Each structure stands twice: as C-alpha cells, then as structure tokens.
Amino acid sequence: MQKNNNAQELLEIIKNSKHVAVLTGAGISTLSGIPDFRGVGGLYSRKDIDANKLFDIHYFKKDPAYYYKNSRDFLYESAARPNIVHESLAKLEEKGLIKAVITQNIDLLHQKAGSKTVFELHGSPKQHYCLSCGKEFDFDTVLSMLQKVDVPMCPDCGGILKPRIVFFGESLPEYDLDNAEYHAKKADFLLVLGTSLTVYPAAAIPEITHRSGGKLGIVNASSTYVDNACVFKAADLGSIFEELNVLL
C-alpha cells in the first residue's frame, strides 16, 4: 500500500467532518504486544491451544475450564496496555472530534485508554453472565474468582459463568451491531484502523458509510477492498498516531 498521507492531513479531515466514526481491528492491538489471532504468534499458530475449541460455545458448555485456562494470559492476566492509537482515539473523543469507536477487538484496551462510546462487535470479557440464572458479573469480580478457582461459578445458583465474548455458534450482540450500523450511516467520515476487512459483518461497515455518502480513510499494513475509495490512506499505524498525538 502506498503511504500517501500524513497525520496533519488526517487531523484536518477529522476536524472538517461533523460525524466521525472509527472502526478498529486486531492491527491496533499488535502495537500493545497482542498478536493478531491469525498472524505470526497468534492463537491459531500456537501448538498448545486449539483455537477452534477455545471460542466454541458448544465446547465451552462441555468443558469451560479449557477456555479459562487458555485465555488467562491474554485476557484476564494480560500485561498489555493501551498504546498510542488507543490513547489518541480517547483524546479525539474527549475533544468531541469522534463520535464512536466500533471495534472487532475483545481486549478492552479502548476502554482502558479512556474511550467512552465503544461498540464491541465481537463482545468482550467486560461482563460475564451465569449460563443457568443469567445473573451478570463484571470483569473484576470474575478476575477475583479466577485467583481461587479454575472456573468461576455463580454464587447464587452454582451455574457456570461465561464472558460476553461472541463465541463460534453465537449471534453478534444486537445492541452493538445496531449502533455500529447507525454510526456507519451517520458518519461523513469513517476511519478504518488495523483491519484487513475480511471478516463480516464488520467488513461491511465501510460499505454502509460509502453508500450513505460518507468518506472513508484507512490505516492498515495490508491492502483492503476499500483502498481505492479512500480519501486518506496510510500503512503505518504507529507513526501516523505518534504524529497525530503530538498535534492534539
């Protein structure tokens, strides 16, 4: 991908737009040391974990310990911290320059950086719920449970707790999907960051903006199907956002 724009140009586009939404993927989390699930060193390349079992709802119900044991290091006890992209997006929102972040990521780094309006297309472990009675538990409560047990259980009914991550075999969260589509339609500029736009329905978000008359921008290492339609295009997330953060 040709690198033909800079941070100053991106900031001008954002400032001259009325409704900016951002779509983020795994590429922004790699800057925090979290491997892309399907990239080098990602879950699908690990020999010690069967990634297809890890996020399969049927396997979870059969053996929830498999999920909790193998997700501890990157979800519950992760040392990953928000990076310059997460921090800059939170700052842009605080200044009123972006309206929403739509993310495919489940690592909670947007929230940890301070972003308030985040719609998680694939859910996250921010909330857990009992598979038996439906009672909700927050992340910190479950994390505390996992210091003592291998599988967190509901103190009321003894049911297994499941994170609100979208596992294979489950539907996407309706609330987040509806809000993502709303902001995609409303956006006069949609900025796509760190995603190759190959996984649907997230990959359709830019199409919605484009059909609604909005402009597109993208910062991603590899090419995508929307590149030719973008008014802003760059390859290196780190350098663009290092520059952008200085300008904010």
UniProtKB/TrEMBL annotation:
Domain Deacetylase sirtuin-type: 1-248
Entry annotated with the keyword NAD: yes
Enzyme class, broadest EC rank: transferase
EC number of this enzyme: 2.3.1.286
Pfam families given in the database record: SIR2
Annotated positions binding Zn(2+): C130, C133, C154, C157
Active site per the UniProt annotation: H122 (proton acceptor)
UniProt xrefs under SUPFAM superfamilies: DHS-like NAD/FAD-binding domain
Keyword terms: Metal-binding, NAD, Transferase, Zinc
PANTHER family in the cross-refs: NAD-DEPENDENT PROTEIN DEACYLASE, NAD-DEPENDENT PROTEIN DEACYLASE SIRTUIN-5, MITOCHONDRIAL-RELATED
NCBIfam families: PRK00481.1-1, PRK00481.1-3
Name listed for the protein in its UniProt record: protein acetyllysine N-acetyltransferase
Organism: Taurinivorans muris
